[in-house]
What we know:
Layout: E1 45-46, E2 53-54, H1 57-60, H2 101-125, E3 134-138, E4 142-144, E5 147-149, E6 156-158, E7 163-167, H3 168-174, H4 180-199, H5 201-211, H6 214-241, H7 246-257, H8 272-285
Parallel strand pairs: 3-7
Antiparallel strand pairs: 1-4, 2-3, 4-5, 6-7
Amino acid sequence: MGIVLAAVTVFGIGTVGAVAASISANRAEERSYQQTAPSSSAEPTTSETTSETTTSEETTTSEEPSSTAQPVLKLGDNPINVDGSGAVTTPCPLPAFDTDVAAQDAFYQAALPCLMRAWEPALEQANLPTDMPRVVTTGSDITTPCGLRTWDQTALYCPQDNTIYMTARYYSEVEGRTEAGVFLGQFAHEFGHALQRLSGINAAYGQASATAQGDAGLELTRRSELQATCFEGMTLAALQNGGVSDEIIFPALRDSAGRGDENSDVDDHGSIQTNSTWVQQGFTKNRVTQCNTWLSPSSDVD
């Protein structure tokens, strides 16, 4: 449901205290995918494994007609950057969390409309689309329009079908993580990429990446990933101010602050210190303009 941002809107400003600067999580997150035409309109299929894939399409597909607004293919000067715009305070009752596929799916399906409500006013104020992404929770390898995602890889947002693919077993079985906040933080990061698609930033990034080479291409990817991380911080602020427990919010922030290229062999997500800075900036300031990584100096996205 659309929210017209004509009345006074209260934006949540999170207070995290001291977010840990680093943890030794070993994850090489997905690269962002260029927004190109899907190779097929068919639904994603899973490979044959013993684990299930769950998606509750009825709870994630809006019955209202899509907005006539269109993404704008710009980066630093994208219209999403409205002064004073942020993620609005959003109550979000979440079910009990567990690491099995069904419980995780119920958690993400409950969180998804909350994230959309938090961001609809900012998108509408910028005259951008508000199409809610879908979420597919899988414990198996899955074929997406963006390629194969194996069960032991991190979560993926695919712009080609506007779907977040949450790989349920990665964080619990590869990293040994069980805290709800870790999973919610990653989900909010992937939702940040969905916001980039809605705004047109993702497609503009894809165009810029097509001609960039070497370090220039990696820097573009870091700018994209760090903006999604900053958007994640904004989302967590909106949920915290809406009543989501600090026992979920703070672990999400600590985990995101500890992610970085020190845990990878590719410099495409930014250092641990840089990730920590951007997630805290999003959380404490909760302004879209404060997440504009595209206008930041290279030293801020290293």
